[in-house]
Specification:
By secondary structure, the chain is α/β, with parallel strands linked by helices. It contains 10 helices and 7 strands. It is elongated and about 90 Å long. The relative contact order is 0.10. Bound molecules: zinc ion (ZN) (2 copies).
Length: about 325
């Protein structure tokens, strides 16, 4: 994972040493319209239905070129032949593959990715690609209950949905954190900062919820589709632990430090994962959110410094008379 070339601009793609051939264009167009993971033969059949006169060999060559150019990804579902999926606006992911109906469904888990990275690092191994495939029987084949899969074009939407849900959960826990921190902070300036951040979280929360509603409106089935992104650590919102610490009772300085820690964690989380996603709305959500969290962290760090300064002055001014007395 995370070893993709930068995404090519489809409009400017050219085969090496030549003009873009119109056959290649036609094959590319058919491929990009597909939802599923196609084998070379399936793509050839689709192309042939639309356009006579394109040979199998040309389709095969074009597929190879698409993989090299970063337009397509090769996947192997253990059938003894390769399948191909578009990589454009399609985040990297893992697959669940049904041995009965041969349908595949996509998911992404940063917990799994982190673990893979951890293992590779521990073994001083430079990973170029990692594949996680779960083979078995899907719910529909087991129970007959119709269940939507996540595949192709839906992945982009479901990804954005889950990224937004995660950002919303984080905003909620942030809002709770700052509201609580504001209520218990005695230092007036510190309290004002917490109130301001609570206000910002409230505003962002409203924006994210609006964006969520707009996204849901694009696909009536979107809310009922299965989970795509699995993040154990972020499920309850990244500020939940911080809010828990506040509940135990802390002073102003500690409250600021906990806030800084939460914002730092949140910033790093959204940036780290946002950066490795392929170009998509989900990626946008993560990166924008990462920026907001950094701005919050910086604000808290400034506030922490100025609180320490005020306290320092306070202590010094109190200490002076005692020192005089001691003389
Ligand atoms: Zn099945
Ligand atoms: Zn896939």
């Amino acid at each position: 994972m995370g070893t993709d070339r930068p995404l090519p601009d489809l409009a400017t793609l050219r085969p090496a040493g030549g003009k873009r051939s119109s056959k290649r264009d036609q094959i590319l167009n058919v491929f990009l319209r597909q939802q599923a993971h196609l084998s070379a033969d399936e793509l050839f059949e689709l192309v042939r239905r639309e356009k006579a006169g394109i040979g199998r060999a040309t389709v095969y060559r074009t597929l190879q070129w698409m993989v090299t150019a970063g337009v397509a990804r090769k996947v192997d579902f253990g059938e003894g032949r390769s399948r191909f999926e578009p990589s454009y606006r399609h985040p990297r992911h893992f697959h669940l593959i049904c041995a009965n109906c041969h349908r595949s469904s996509e998911f992404l888990s940063s917990d799994v990715e982190s673990l893979i990275e951890e293992i590779a690092a521990a073994r001083h191994f430079a990973p170029s690609q990692s594949v996680v495939q779960i083979f078995g029987t899907c719910e529909e084949c087991r129970t007959g209950k119709q269940t939507p899969t996540i595949d192709g074009a839906t992945t982009e939407l479901v990804f954005a949905r889950d990224a937004l849900r995660m950002a919303i959960a984080t905003e909620r826990s942030g809002l709770e954190f700052y509201t609580r921190a504001a209520a218990m902070t005695k230092d007036v300036r510190g309290r004002t900062v917490f109130e301001r951040l609570a206000g910002e979280e409230r505003e962002h929360l409203a924006t994210l919820q609006k964006r969520y509603r707009e996204l849901i409106a694009q696909d009536p089935q979107l809310e009922s589709r299965p989970t795509f992104l699995f993040f154990k650590g972020a499920a309850s919102g990244l500020f939940a632990t911080g809010a828990e610490q506040l509940r135990k009772g802390v002073n102003d300085e500690q409250a600021l430090l906990i806030g800084i820690e939460c914002e730092r964690g949140s910033h790093e989380f959204f940036k780290r994962y946002g950066e490795r996603f392929e170009d998509s709305e989900g990626k946008q959500v993560f990166l924008e959110f990462a920026d907001e969290e950094r701005a919050h962290r910086d604000l808290l760090v400034r506030e922490y410094r100025s609180l320490r300064e005020r306290q320092g002055r306070h202590r010094r001014s109190r200490r002076t008379p005692i020192a005089k007395r001691a003389r």
